[in-house]
Amino acid sequence: MIAGLDATALLAAYRAAELSPVDVMQAVLAQASAREPELHALCAVDADAALAAARASEARWRAGNALALDGVPVTLKENIAVPGAAARSGTAATPAEARFDFEAPPAARLREAGAIAWARTTMPDYGMLSSGLSSLYAEPARNPWDPTRTPGGSSAGAAAAAAAGYGPLHLGTDIGGSIRLPAGWCGLVGLKPSHGRVPIKPGYAGRAAGPLTRSLQDAALMLAVLAQPDARDPTQLPPGDVLPRPLALRGLRLGLLLDAGWGEPVQPDVAAAIAAAAHAFEQAGAAVEPLAPFTTREMVDGIDRFWRMRSWLDISALPAGRRDKVLPYILDWAAPAAGYDGATVFRGYSQMQALREAANAACEPFDFVLSPVSPMPAFPAHLASPLHDPARPFEHIAFTLPCNMSEQPALAINAGYTAAGLPIGLQIIGRRFDDAGVLALGAAWETLRAAQRPWPLG
Asked: Which of 46, 62, 448, 451 is a good FRET partner for 254, with 20 to 30 A between their CA atoms?
């Protein structure tokens, strides 16, 4: 199936004149049209513009002046700014006429490389859920492996689109696991890069943009394009090589984190898959050592309170009629912040630094750390979170959140499947700035793991 080909395969086919970008774009549009009634991954599609861009790309390939990702289809998460695109943040509380008036750095880099941004993908209200539940859409995004389950979130539509073969490249964002959680639950490769590796606007503490793809090679290809300088992000890192480097497994020191110190306990299927991955690396010559929990309940509760206040300020500024349109779960979660005093909010904010220091110190002795992406597989699609309890909203992000605060690169990649056939995500954490190393260990894992099941393309 053309729509299910990886970007590296498409570029090779374009180069050999075996496929044209027009053929591919037509196939991707057809695949999305066939699957969307069930998956609800997309919030906007511009087929005419996509086909026009494909024809322009085809001409560049024929003329011998193709760009790095010329003619490769890519989707953009709804919160990635493109001039004129709807800017509703996944919530019905935002007026329909709200539009972006600038182009975010990741969108610009993909466009400059010739990729065809043909669709925008759905997300939950304000990106504050690890599911596809949204007040803006009649149906939540669904997981192609089992449509009764969530694809994860907040890059919900991006993950569903990737697993279902809506082209090879998908751009998400991550502030607590919003790339890695859906990647893990959909069997994908999802990278939260080092903070500043991919310039982003608007920026926020812990916020990153990165790839969701079906292969490690495609994630690396996409990151190489995204990791270009852009002065609009004052946290941007200096240019550096992000392509996977040669990596000998023998002699590597790997930490194994199976208890995050808080949150839901790791379910048996998940623990077994991650332990098996660690054993495979050990058999290949790496030294694997248990890593004790380093995150505390005080840290996460403080960050939770700070995030509640941030969201409450946004929600309380809405006119009453608009405020009532926010997803009730989000309203219930944010409402307690109305009673917080300044000291409570400041102490919450300070836990970001506490977690940053703890995570970097715990991981420093190791070349890489292995962990689950999440303690459980994908949960029912109509729930906001596994517990569906706004008083306990983050019990499933105990393994992903630390890397946002610590600014370390973290990769989600498939480790296996539950007895029911749902994907299980392995997280590979590297030292700050070692995105190339994280990708390299992910590439090594692709050669060690068991054969993967066919993608649920339809």
From this structure: 451
Q: Which amino acid is at 53?
A: A
For residue range 41-91, what is the model confidence (pLDDT) as tens digits? 999 999 999 999 999 999 999 999 999 999 999 999 999 999 999 999 999
Q: What is the dihedral of CA 104, 106, 112, 117, to 10 degrees?
A: -90
Q: Mean pLDDT over all residues of the chain?
A: 97
**Residue percentage of the chain with pLDDT more than 90:** 98
Residue 402 has a pLDDT of 98
> d(Cα 377, Cα 78) in Å, to the nearest integer?
25
- What is the sign, positive or negative, of the torsion defined by CA atoms of 152, 156, 160, 165? negative
Provide the β-strand partners of residue 209.
Answer: 173
Q: E strands within 5-55? A: 42-45
What is the DSSP track for 110-165?
Answer: HHHTT-EEEEEE---GGG-SSS---TTSSS---BTTBTTB---SSSHHHHHHHHTT
Render pLDDT for 318-343 as a digit per residue (tens, 0 to 9): 999 999 999 999 999 999 999 999 99
| 266 φ, ψ (degrees, to nearest 5) | -70, 130
What is the separation of C-alpha 10 from the centre of its chain, rounded to a whole number of angstroms?
23
What CA–CA distance (Å, rounded) separates 370 from 19? 39
For residue 37, is the peptide bond before it cis, meaning its omega torsion is within 30 degrees of 0? no
pLDDT at site 245: 86
CA angle (399 as vertex; 393, 402 as ends), nearest 5: 90
CATH numbers and ranges of domains, the chain? 2-226 (3.90.1300.10), 254-297+345-448 (3.90.1300.10)
Neighbours of 251 (CB within 10 A): 9
pLDDT surpassing 90 at residue 240: no
Structure token digits, residue 202: 């608007």
Listed in sequence order, the residues at least 6 apart from 451 whose beta carbon sits closer than 8 Å to its beta carbon are none
Q: Do 224 and 242 contact (CB within 8 A), yes or no?
A: yes
Q: What is the DSSP string of 377-415?
A: ---BTT-SSSS--TTSTTTT-TTTHHHHHHT--EEEEEE
* Catalytic residue ranges: 77, 154, 178
Task: Locate 292 and state its tokens.
Answer: 């004790």
What does pTM read for this prediction? 0.98
For residue 99, what are the β-bridge partners? Answer: 86
Of the chain, the end-to-end C-alpha distance in Å amounts to: 10
